[in-house]
Amino acid sequence: MALGANNLNNIFDSKYYQHLGGGAFEGIGKLFKNNIQLYLYPMLSENNTVITSQNIQLEDEELQPIVEYFVSQKQIFDI
Question: Which residue in 48, 46, 56, 57 sits closest to 77, CA to CA?
Answer without folding.
Answer: 56
